Amino acid sequence: MERYATIPIGNQGTLGAIRQFLASLLEKKLVDALLVPLELPTGDNVVPTIVSSPEQVQAANLLAPVMPVNAARLVSRITMISPSPDRLGVVLRPCELRALIELVKLKQASLDKVLLIGIDCHGTYSVADYGKFVSESSSPTEDFLKRVQGGKDDPLLRKACQICEYPVPMCADLTLGLLGAKLDKEILLVASTPEGEQVIQELGLEEAKATERESAISGLVAERAKKREEMLKQIQEEVKGLEKMMATLATCMNCHNCKTACPLCYCKECFFDSPVFEFEAEKYLGWAKRRGALRMPNDTLLFHLTRLNHMVVSCVGCGLCTEACPNDIPVFDIFRLVGYEVQKVFDYVPGRSLEEELPLTTFKEEELPDIGV
Amino acid sequence: MAEENEFEPVIVGFFCNWCTATAADLAGTLRMQYPANIRPIRIMCSGSVDPVYILRALLGGADGVIVGGCPPGDCHYVSGNYKARRRMAILKTMLSTLGIEEDRVWIRWISAAEGPKFARTMNEVTESIKKLGPNPISKDRSI
Q: Which domains are delineated in chain B?
């Protein structure tokens, strides 16, 4: 069902070839605009940008291993009130794409006139680590590819990426295939839908076979899954039990940054930002009296546990919650651990398919025999 | 006779208006006793119980929480109890994964006709929570 073509690299380098491909999408009017990460003039970060001119797209950098924001949130922002009027191509990493699919199911994003372009993802660094990496390297993207090629362990990768078993986009129209491709010669372009096939046809790209792609993917996935098992076990040791949970969350200052960074915290108005949590002084002193002491700000455990309950079934494990925490609380660790277990209960993989219903919007008459008698 | 210092748990009950809350009435009419440890709150459907209510009760110091809904297939709103069951599966999986006692959270299907089952279940949950002892969270200052 999938159709493959190659994008030749020539002497412009991998990044150059990708830029050329993106520019040709705009030049040939296959899309009217692209949402794509552009490199900052300083070169030490990228920011998602809506680009409509082929010249501007030359600053795109899809290979920079950094994700300051999960762009699913941005696609939702763009299309929530009304669908895109023109053809919009969105270039996303696998976890961004999965989050977007979940948001579409939650009716908070529209894919009308949207071309989903995914890219194989080796993982990303934190914004700070990437900045440092760039300052120490003369050609950061090439250096990064060398560090991770063949599924090598890169200790700079964020924890979330080290254990991510979905390095390949799901539900994309088109995928820029880096895994198993000979990146000194060509990039593989994978079309998974008629829309994607049309792009390959219009661009007149040479059809190809994906000989080494499958084995490269399965090798990387197996390695990541193994690492995930190890890491989840370790996380469980670190956080399991009331005391350890309390200790882990002890420095939470209730800023809700994790909620803001999360692509899937989908409520338009958060219960925890509501006046429900404003109390008279009497209340606080009363609680302190009853317990002997009351840590302030209070209700932080309630916040995290409730957030878990509300969205963890759709958690894609992008890890930006941890990045957003000013006090370095390993929010991702807790969410990934719980998400893994909860998603298993419903055999649900967030972002796997648009048709698969969200676990909380459906049910089976016969299921979960241990819950309720 | 109960000893004077015996632990008396506080158990918050969220009971569906159409079944479990009515069963509670029936138990009363039948003059069946159930423990005063239960603090019943009537709700319109077990499907309307957001996990935050349960968590709020537990973190606020309740020793247990029991949700009572219509037996599967009999929801007044067709499918609220099925959705409650899924929510409960998520909540219990989360609690057990994080090592917070999930045994303190119960869900039971009790129809409006089942006064005796209501009384029996309330006795059961109270005994079970008594065995677990006081909720450690209720003493923790760092919720």
A: 11-133 (3.40.50)
pLDDT band at A210 (very low <50, low <70, confident <90, very high): confident
Report the percentage of chain A scoring pLDDT > 70.
99
Q: Is residue A31 domain-shared with residue A176, that is, in the same domain?
A: yes
Q: pLDDT tens digits, residue range A216-258?
A: 999 999 999 999 999 999 999 999 999 999 999 999 999 999 9
**Best residue in B52, B135, B137 for a mutation probing chain A (most A CBs within 10 Å):** B52
Cβ neighbours of A359 (radius 10 Å): 21
Q: Give me the residue from A250, A338, A363 closest to B86, CB to CB.
A: A363
Residues A209 and A256 in one domain: no
Amino acid A1: pLDDT: 77
Q: Are A244 and A201 contained in the same domain?
A: no
Confirm whether A367 is domain-assigned.
no
Sign of CA dihedral A285, A288, A292, A297: negative
d(CA B3, nearest CA chain A) in Å: 24
This model's pTM is above 0.80: yes
Range of the domain at A275: 240-361
Dump pLDDT digits (tens) for B64-104. Answer: 999 999 999 999 999 999 999 999 999 999 999 999 999 99
Domain count, chain A: 2
- Band of residue B36 on the pLDDT scale cut at 50, 70, 90: very high
Same domain, A72 and A119: yes
- The DSSP code sequence of B107-129 is EEE--TT-HHHHHHHHHHHHHHH
- What tokens does B24 get? 């509670």
Is the CB of residue B14 less than 8 Å away from at least one CB of chain A? no
Q: Same domain, yes or no, for A208 and A259?
A: no
Contact A110, A360 (CB under 8 A): no
Examine the domain organization and report whether A180 and A56 are in the same domain: yes
Whether A167 and A117 share a structural domain: yes
* Chain A CA closest to residue B67: A372
Sequence-distant (6+) residues with CB within 8 A of A143 are: A133, A137
